[in-house]
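step=encode ok
step=design start
structure_in=
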């Protein structure tokens, strides 16, 4: 049977799981085999983080997924440790990706403005023909999506900061210069503009900041944008299979990264971040986070690492 979302399921049934109080949730976890040495502590955590959200961190410790039986050696502290690790990992990722994003925006604006002027983003001749082709799924072209976002940012009643000041002081040109506007554009729109640039030399000029080939920067920035959105929406990172992957290049291959894993994302972020912030201790902080939370019960393989993760060559500068 096909659902409206386009998925196929057989033998579907009616969902009838009742809501449970937090005390009932704790009883259920105990019945499934989870050790809960401190009930009050567990009660507090389940009051702040939902049972459903935490269940994703419990699943790796299940020995029977159908009946949700949990490894008897695992306690609630192990589950909470994994949750805290993932939360702090997102914060570290956001810290690094923010600097990469700002540097990318800066290079995009500087290179294009110097070559084509302050309003280059309105020049259709700078972009590939596909920039104006309509996507049958959304019924809008990338250009239409871009103009739509610009219009929303520049509406006089909702404009913010320097854009609002621009319209107070000037009546032309109709839109602000790129260096002003691009401070407010989404990361996705910036990467989209870069991807659709027609002139290869423009991409090379923008990418030179990162000392990497333009095609590598293009795929990597798109992968980092995807990861940044996961972080911003509080999605799990530690066990994720990253569906938007960077193009395979020398540095990733030398690090022995399995495509789509967290380890690949770490190597990618560190590569870009070390260029943007060469004096940063980001990788050392990441290593410390791993050291604080990875125990013998931690399913480290799901991140793309081996059990002897400390010996991995990506940490060489941390040891």
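sequence_out=
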């Amino acid at each position: 049977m096909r659902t409206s979302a386009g998925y196929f399921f057989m033998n579907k049934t009616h969902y009838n799981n009742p809501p449970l109080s937090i005390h009932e949730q704790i009883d259920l976890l105990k019945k499934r085999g989870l050790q809960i040495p401190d009930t009050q502590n567990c009660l507090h955590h389940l009051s702040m983080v939902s049972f459903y959200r935490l269940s994703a961190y419990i699943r790796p410790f299940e020995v029977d997924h159908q009946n949700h039986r949990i490894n008897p050696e695992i306690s609630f502290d192990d589950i909470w440790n994994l949750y805290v690790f993932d939360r702090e990992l997102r914060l570290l990722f956001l810290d690094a990706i923010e600097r990469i994003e700002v540097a990318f925006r800066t290079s995009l604006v500087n290179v294009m403005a110097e070559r084509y002027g302050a309003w280059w983003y309105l020049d259709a001749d700078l972009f590939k023909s596909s920039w104006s082709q309509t996507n049958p799924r959304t019924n809008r072209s990338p250009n239409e999506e871009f103009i739509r976002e610009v219009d929303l940012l520049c509406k006089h009643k909702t404009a913010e900061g320097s854009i609002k000041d621009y319209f107070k002081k000037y009546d032309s040109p109709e839109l602000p210069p790129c260096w002003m506007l691009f401070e407010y554009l989404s990361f996705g729109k910036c990467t989209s503009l870069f991807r659709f640039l027609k002139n290869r030399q423009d991409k090379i000029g923008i990418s030179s900041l990162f000392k990497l080939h333009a095609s590598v920067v293009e795929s990597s920035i798109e992968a980092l944008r995807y990861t940044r959105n996961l972080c911003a929406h509080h999605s799990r990172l530690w066990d994720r299979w990253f569906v938007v992957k960077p193009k395979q290049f020398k540095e990733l291959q030398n690090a022995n990264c399995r495509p789509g894993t967290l380890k690949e994302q770490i190597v990618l972020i560190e590569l870009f971040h070390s260029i943007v912030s060469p004096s940063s201790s980001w990788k050392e902080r990441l290593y410390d986070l791993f050291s604080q939370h990875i125990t013998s019960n931690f399913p480290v393989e799901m991140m793309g690492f081996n059990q002897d993760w400390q010996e991995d060559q990506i940490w060489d500068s941390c040891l």
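step=design ok
step=annotate ok -> The beta strands are 62-64, 69-70.
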